[in-house]
Amino acid sequence: MEGPDLDKKMETYYVRVRGVVQGVGFRHATLRHAHALGITGWVANVADGSVEAMLQGPANQIDRMLEWMRRGPPSARVIDFVSEERRVDKRFVRFEQH
User: Fold this and answer.
1) Which residue in the list 32, 45, 60, 64 is annotated as catalytic?
2) What is the pTM of this model?
3) Which fold has domain 10-88?
């Protein structure tokens, strides 16, 4: 019995990252990493000082993106990371920084 092809299975995840994640290039680095992995969706600063993102793409690439976001760029200090899979009908065309 074969499992699902994780390079083709599309997943969508909501992510919230807290810590020193604003003013350190977190969104821009997330944008660049998402483009490199072929992930679509968005990333944005939140008024409480956190960063949130919606990620959509093949399961294997989502896993890589989530692992990267747990650390972020070198200047960031992630102290809390929450991700949850979302069931959405919308398909994002590109990855955007808000």
Assistant:
1) 45
2) 0.89
3) Alpha-Beta Plaits (3.30.70)
